[in-house]
Amino acid sequence: MEVNTAPSQVKATPFQRIRNHKCCSGKRFFVWIVCVSLFLVGAALALFFLFPRFPTSKLRKIHLDSLEINNVHSATAHLLVDLTIGNPNYISVNVQKLSFNASNPAYASGAAPFASGIDAIPFTMPARGDVNITVPLNVTYDSRNDPKLKFLGQVTGQCALGLLGNSSATFTADIFVITEAIVLGSIRVYQETFLQQQIGCPPL
To answer: Which residues are listed as membrane-spanning (predicted)?
Structure first.
């Protein structure tokens, strides 16, 4: 009886086949691992630094520019609002146009905005920095959109308390913001954002 003394062949695993390939042998394999690791780390850092974070805003001052009586039911106050915009991102943002409107469920059931504004003057938000801007704001009140004067009573009551120094006296505004900006030098971004803010009149 013949005995087969030849060594048995063990099937190589997929990793071993890659490891034994010429392109992945010795130093090449080490360089390949280092390159892949650096790529993964770089991708993670890029996501961290470039992931968009929404800017913050702080009201500094409100100026009354003019008051316009539209008709017996409606009037519009043209305001200039001084804001400080904070950019939490690690890249600067060149804002080309900023437009927004604000509504409240008590005014026209939220279907019509009580305030709107457009700032078409470009400005740059520095990376991890602040910028001061002045935004024109038009506040229009139409009594036909507030038949029970619920919205008017809410706003005037809270503003009266705010003017007396009560910082917690606010009313709710649903704000829809449209931003047109340029990032990284040439990439144009169009962003629509919905916010719900508590707004109060600044103290005297």
So the answer is: 29-51
Same domain, yes or no, for 92 and 19? no
Integer-rounded Cα Rg, in Å, for the chain is: 30
Phi, psi for 19 (deg, rounded to 5): -65, -35
- Does 7 reside within a domain? no
Residue 141 placed within a domain? yes
Q: Which of 86, 170, 101, 111 has the alpha carbon at shortest distance from 139? A: 101
Query: In the chain, at which residue ranges do the beta strands (DSSP E only) sit?
Result: 56-69, 74-86, 93-103, 115-119, 123-125, 130-142, 171-183, 187-199
24 is in which domain, residue-wise?
Answer: 14-50
Cα angle 50-193-141, degrees, rounded to a multiple of 5: 150
Residue 27 placed within a domain: yes
Report the distance separating Cα 139 and Cα 116, nearest Å: 7
**Mean pLDDT split into 10-residue runs, the chain, 204 residues:** 52 55 57 61 52 68 79 84 81 83 87 84 85 85 87 82 71 81 77 75 58
Q: How many domains does the chain have?
A: 2
